[in-house]
Amino acid sequence: MFQLKNLSSRWLLAPLALVPLAVSCDNSDDDSSDGLKDSAAASTFDGEIARAWMNQMYALVKSNGTAPPQASRIYGYCGVTIYEASVRGMAGHNSLEGQLNGLVDLSEPTNKKHHWPSVVNRAMAVVATSFYAGNAAAIDALEDGFDATYDGTVAADIRARSIQYGEDLANEILVWAAADGFAGLAACNAAYVPPGNPGD
Length: 200
Prior knowledge:
mainly alpha, 7 helices, disordered N terminus, about 50% helix
């Protein structure tokens, strides 16, 4: 199971997901007006998308009767996903890469403007569908709702690269989750047969 090396475990759950969406300036020597450092800071956006996705995951956990050990892992992975999808836009914050066991080699965004809510939206849609493929319609509806809003307010090229970055990041986090033992935990729960009542 993943473990924090230098951070409190509370960062893995929903509070982490609600950290205000602020831009790291890794490209300080780039004087263009279209570089990553020129993206609107994540703190300029409200936290509605993080709340909406975590509420969606809560609803899916409840409606699917997901066992507590699996549910806690799912919430943790989703918290990491939302944080990693917005941390490049959060000044003074660092990726969890190298701080969680096995979480390494995450993609970096290209040196172009990104729209962090679009990154979060796509990343969470990919992760949520991986865990709850049978609820794809509800997941797609939430993603499409945010997409419709962003398509009318964000330039198409920024949207496209943000969506692609979110998808790439989500797939890498899912690879990490699989190696973290989640699949084995799910199989163990599926194979468990509760004992019958005495005397049956």
